[in-house]
Amino acid sequence: MGVILWIIFGALVGWVASLIMKTDAEQGAVLNIVIGVVGAVIGGWLMSVFGGSGMTGFNLYSFLVALVGAVVLIVVVKALRRV
């Protein structure tokens, strides 16, 4: 994927993940993009650990993989903030 598609994809994934985790009010557009892109990397890594394929392009499967990674990232950040 090109850089522009990663930014758009990251924004969508980060926004949906923040809605699921109820952190949307705390995050802006830039943080949604960062969470989405980093979540895609984490999700791809998790899928490769469990034997699946990682990011395969701009499709529903990749969206779900990135969403799982973004939710995991938000959970870890929330846990670290409490400590």
TrEMBL record:
What is the protein's major site of localization? Answer: membrane
Q: Which GO terms describe its cellular component?
A: plasma membrane
Q: Where is the signal peptide?
A: none
Keyword terms: Cell membrane, Membrane, Transmembrane, Transmembrane helix
Cellular compartments annotated:
Cell membrane
Q: Membrane spanning segments where? A: 6-22, 29-48, 60-80
Q: Does the keyword Transmembrane apply?
A: yes
Q: Does Transmembrane count among this protein's keywords? A: yes
Q: Which domain of life is it from?
A: Bacteria
Q: Sorted alphabetically, which InterPro entries does this protein's record hold?
A: Transgly_assoc (IPR007341)
**Mode of membrane association:** Multi-pass membrane protein
Q: Which family does it belong to?
A: Belongs to the UPF0410 family.
Q: How is this protein named in the record? A: Transglycosylase
